[in-house]
Amino acid sequence: MNAPIAGPVEDPIDAYRIVSEPFYRPFAQEVGHYEAAYAARLPILLKGPTGCGKTRFVEHMAWRLKRPLVTVSCHEDMTASDLVGRFLLDADGTVWHDGPLTAAVRHGAICYLDEVVEARQDTTVVIHSLTDHRRHLPLEKKNELVQAHPDFQLVISYNPGYQSVLKDLKESTRQRFCAISFDYPDAAIEAEIVAREAGVEPETARVLVRVAERSRNLKGHGLREGASTRMLIAAGQLTAQGVPLEEACQIAIVLPLVDEPEIRAAMSSAVSACL
Ligand code: ADP
């Protein structure tokens, strides 16, 4: 009897392919600059405040370039093994499991390390040999040197606003990257994004953007960061669910941003002035 014919073996990296176009509204030349950097296989650093579109931009670019996207949200407990992989015990003994970075390197994905400075410094050092002419990743525990797939690219993001002496991008790391700078877009573009993403009327979106502008002016005067585009979208989504606009601004913008009662009062009156 003939052996059954195996169906096509699915490549696990296919799970990371982005099938439909993520909406991204460009604000300058960032799409062309990214394409040029990718064509030269240069690593990219996306700089900018939280919630201003960096992740959405990478998703859009991965879709445009038809590359799988492996995203890792970095945090302070993250070790180099979390990125590159480790030996794990299973029924057959110890088996090596590639981490997300190694999988991306082997299979030609774009690997996006979000908020890379949050990770421990030994973690950032493992990416160095991937970001120069060597383009390889040493797996010390496995005694293997993985040569990067020709389509592999490394992208990291970094919020200079959070920077402290302890959590700054090392000079030897930052000098390996081309950088694209992000900020909150111009009011008209931001309103367009909020209207589309939250599914609200253009006028509601414009009001939310005015609220954001007020909060951004309070940065450094009691606020660590102003309201992000992400927060405006959340407020818009609440209004689309029937929550009155002022309450939506409280829930999605003022309360998450501010703890101190005085600043909260200042922020709340700024909101009322915008409505
Ligand atoms: P970051 O990675 O900078 O923290 P995100 O990319 O997650 O921020 O952005 C937050 C949300 O804001 C996105 O999910 C998206 O809805 C919206 N957004 C921000 N900028 C844009 C843009 N230029 N085009 C489309 N959506 C955007």
From TrEMBL:
It comes from the Bacteria. The keyword Nucleotide-binding applies. InterPro entries: ATPase_dyneun-rel_AAA, CbbQ/NirQ/NorQ/GpvN, CbbQ_C, P-loop_NTPase. Keywords: ATP-binding, Nucleotide-binding. Pfam families: AAA_5, CbbQ_C. PANTHER family: DENITRIFICATION REGULATORY PROTEIN NIRQ (PTHR42759:SF7), MOXR FAMILY PROTEIN (PTHR42759). Transmembrane segments: none annotated. Residues 190-273 form the CbbQ/NirQ/NorQ C-terminal domain. Residues 43-177 form the ATPase dynein-related AAA domain. This is Denitrification regulatory protein NirQ. Coiled coil: none annotated. GO terms for molecular function: ATP binding; ATP hydrolysis activity. Belongs to the CbbQ/NirQ/NorQ/GpvN family.
